[in-house]
Amino acid sequence: MVKVRKPAGVVWMGGLADSSRLRKVVGPVVLGFLLFMAFGAGGGFGGRALAAATTVTIISGDIQVRHGATASFVSATDGDVLVAGDTLRTGDESRAVLTYFEGSTVSIEPNSELTIENASALTDGSTIVVMQQNFGRTWHVVTKLITGNSKYEVKTPASTASVRGTAFQVDSDGERTIVTTTEGTVVDRVADPDHQGQTVDVPVPAGKTHEQKKNARPAPAATAPQPDRTVTVTLDDQSSLVIDAQGRANGIDKNGKKHLETPGAQLMKTNDGKLQIVIPNVSDGRLEALVRKVDGGEVYVQTTVEEPGKEPVKTQSTVTADKSGEGRASVDLTRTIDGRTNVKQSNGSPSSKTQGALEALFGGKKP
User: Fold this and answer.
1) Is residue 93 packed enough to be buried (19+ CB in 10 Å), middle (13-18) or exposed (0-12)?
2) Are 89 and 63 in contact (CB under 8 A)?
3) 358: helix, strand or coil
4) Whole domain around residue 197: which residue ranges?
5) In angstroms, rounded to a whole number, what is the distance separating the alpha carbons of residues 322 and 326?
6) For each of the chain's 367 residues, which pLDDT tens digit applies?
7) CA–CA gap between residue 47 and residue 59 (Å, rounded)
8) β partners of residue 292
């Protein structure tokens, strides 16, 4: 079902890699948000929008940043602060996470470019986040927007994705945009080529995808394709993170903060209180589970690999946390000649990509 809109009637609908993740992300986000709310409630800025900072976390590779439309691209550093008008660009095998002042995160995948058009808080408590995705893939985990004037939008050459608290992926190559929703509903707003000045809203609920070509008639949403390989890690401890082969963290850290950096990843809680971390389209390589259990003890870990048309592959292990509460388990995924996945518990050395996740989970301690 789609809805035709006129501009005059628009109603707005709308993680981490190195050893300094929480210091550089959580602190600025919380402090900035509290300052905006405090001044806003007291009318300290006379009703004006308050500019807000966005923090960069580098997962891997060389990340380029441009501060303002007329500046040149330079190498970004972990913890860089971006404001409206800044652009982030990733190259081959380069990944980064943006954390906005209101808590929403954007995972930027390789060969992508994203410009922050607006990141601000209004004095009524509303939050405004608008960005332009020029090309590539981004994965958005959006904090629920409480006030009616709040909005979170991702513009592309073909459409504008608008949400009020959800998890979704945006792919764009300049000529078409694909929006895929994992949680909640995205409204993809498309210019109507048959009615100048009007737009059509295409709802994209969870499990659906919307492919829209530039300057084309609005297309309907369709069922999202099944992942090639889905890995579910079940742990009987809630303070756990799973790091994929690309260094992206998913789970819950020691402060209770959720991390969902792999596109499409989800956190679930079983009826018996276990934590399930579901990661789609997992590549070959190592998955590492990091657990934290106060005063040590054993943590049960089960890894289940599912592929369309094949029997699930399961492996189980028990992680013994040391007296400081730290524990780790890892498995290596490889594709066999007949196309099946081989899951093998790994005794190899820890991946260097887990150092930031270790600090997030264990509070700065490293092995």
Assistant:
1) exposed
2) yes
3) helix
4) 3-223
5) 6
6) 544 443 322 222 223 334 344 344 444 444 444 444 444 444 443 445 566 789 999 999 999 999 999 999 999 999 999 999 999 999 999 999 999 999 999 999 999 999 999 999 888 888 999 999 999 999 999 988 877 789 999 999 999 999 987 999 999 998 999 999 999 999 999 998 888 889 999 999 999 999 999 999 999 999 999 999 999 999 988 789 999 999 999 999 888 889 999 999 999 999 888 999 999 999 999 999 988 877 778 888 999 999 999 999 999 988 888 877 788 889 999 998 888 898 888 765 555 555 566 566 566 443 3
7) 37
8) 326
Amino acid at 263: P
Q: Is residue 288 part of a domain?
A: yes
C-alpha closest to that of 83 among 62, 64, 63, 69: 69
Q: Which of 202, 223, 244 is the last residue of a domain?
A: 223
- Residue pair 70/158 in contact (Cβ under 8 Å)? The answer is no
C-alpha distances (whole Å) from 238 to each of 255, 291, 298 are 11, 8, 13
CA of 260: how far to CAs of 169, 214, 244, 308, 345, in Å? Answer: 12, 30, 11, 24, 24
Kindly report the pTM of this predicted structure: 0.83
Q: Yes or no: say if 84 and 114 are a contact pair by the CB < 8 Å rule.
A: no
Tokens of 245: 């082969």
User: Up-side HSE of residue 122: CA atoms within 13 Å toward CB?
Assistant: 13
Residue 367 within a domain: no
**How deeply is 38 buried, as exposed, middle or buried, from its count of CB atoms within 10 A (0-12, 13-18, 19+)?**
exposed
Strands 275-280 and 208-213: unpaired
Are 131 and 162 contacting, i.e. CB atoms less than 8 angstroms apart? Answer: no
Which CATH number characterizes residue 19's domain? 2.60.120.1440
| Spatial distance between the Cα atoms of 329 and 327, rounded to a whole number of angstroms | 7
